[in-house]
Specification:
By secondary structure, the protein is of the alpha/beta class. It has one domain: Aldolase class I (TIM Barrel), CATH 3.20.20.70. Strands 3-2-1-8-7-6-5-4 form an eight-stranded parallel beta sheet. 35% of the residues are buried.
Length: 266
C-alpha cells in the first residue's frame, strides 16, 4: 500500500489537488491522503509568524470540499482518506467514508481517539513520530486489533537520513504484525528500503512542483519518483510470491544443471 500524502500541498486550490491526484494515479499509486482540520481550532504558535497559518487557512477542507476530492478519487477507482486533528475533522471523515483513517504523529499519544477509530473505521493507520517510548509501547499493546497499522515515523521536516532510525521500525516489527513507514526524507531511498524490510504501508509527501508555496512541497517527491516506488512495490510482491518452500532445483534451472555443470575441465 503506497500512499501519496498530498496533505496541504494543494494550498486550497481544488483544481491543483485534482492535478496532483491525476499525477499520482498515472504513477501507479492508488491511495491518496489529505489532512482535515479547521483553522478556527488552531491555538497560537510559531505558525502565526512564519506564514503557516495563512496556508492552513487556504488549505482548509470542510465537508463539501473534502467530499468533492473524495468523489473525484472514487471516480478514478482510487482510495481517498485523510489525517484528522480534531473532533470536527473526525466527524467529517467518518461521515464521508469509514474505510480508512490516519492518526498523525502529533495525535498518536491519544489512545482514546485511536480506540474510538478502531471501532468506527475499517482500517486505522497511526504514525509513531514524536512519541516517547512508553507512548510507543502503549500503541504496540493494541496489537490484537487486526485493523490497526503502525507506521515508523520521525517527525522532522525534512528528515536527514542519519536520523531516520530504522531500528525503531525493527523494534515495532518484532512486537506488532502490521508495520509500515511514513517518510519525510528528501528522495525515495528511505521508502525503497522500508519496502525491502517488509513494510506493509509506505507513505510519502507528494507534489507536482517543489517550487510551490509551503514547507511540505519543498521535500515532497515528484510523480517520476512516486512511479519508481510503485514499480518497486510490484516487484517486491513478485519476488515474495509463495513458492511452497521450494528449496530444490527449479524447472527454469534445468538447462544450466544439465548443460553447464562441470563443463570446464582441468
Amino acid at each position: 500500500m503506497i500512499i501519496s500524502e498530498i496533505g496541504w500541498n494543494f494550498l486550497g486550490n481544488l483544481e491543483l489537488a485534482k492535478k496532483m491526484i491525476d499525477s499520482a494515479d498515472e504513477a501507479g499509486c492508488k491511495y491518496i491522503k489529505f489532512q482535515i482540520w479547521n483553522p478556527k481550532n488552531l491555538i497560537k504558535g510559531s505558525w502565526d509568524n512564519d506564514g503557516r497559518r495563512e496556508i492552513y487557512n487556504k488549505a482548509y477542507l470542510d465537508k463539501d470540499r473534502y467530499t468533492e476530492l473524495y468523489n473525484y478519487c472514487n471516480e478514478k477507482n482510487l482510495t481517498c482518506f485523510a489525517s484528522v486533528f480534531d473532533d470536527e475533522g473526525y466527524k467529517i471523515l467518518k461521515t464521508v467514508s469509514k474505510k480508512f483513517i490516519k492518526i498523525p504523529s502529533v495525535e498518536a499519544y491519544d489512545i482514546d481517539l485511536i480506540k474510538k477509530s478502531l471501532n468506527d473505521f475499517e482500517n486505522v493507520i497511526v504514525s509513531t513520530g514524536a512519541l516517547k517510548k512508553i507512548e510507543l509501547d502503549n500503541l504496540i499493546n493494541l496489537k490484537n486489533y487486526k485493523n490497526l497499522t503502525l507506521l515508523h515515523c520521525v517527525s522532522s521536516y525534512p528528515l536527514n537520513y542519519e536520523n531516520i532510525n530504522f531500528e525503531k521500525f525493527h523494534y515495532i516489527k518484532k512486537k506488532f504484525n502490521n508495520v509500515g513507514y511514513s517518510g519525510h526524507a528528501e528522495g525515495i531511498e528511505d521508502a525503497i528500503y522500508a519496502l525491502a524490510l517488509g513494510a506493509t504501508v509506505v507513505e510519502k509527501h507528494f507534489t507536482i512542483d517543489n517550487s510551490l508555496e509551503g514547507r511540505d512541497n519543498k521535500f515532497a517527491i515528484l510523480p517520476s519518483q512516486l512511479k519508481i516506488i510503485c514499480e518497486f512495490e510490484k516487484k517486491i510482491k513478485i519476488m515474495n510470491q509463495v513458492n511452497k518452500e521450494n528449496y530444490d532445483l527449479q524447472d527454469i534451472e534445468e538447462d544450466v544443471y544439465n548443460n553447464y555443470r562441470g563443463r570446464w575441465k582441468n
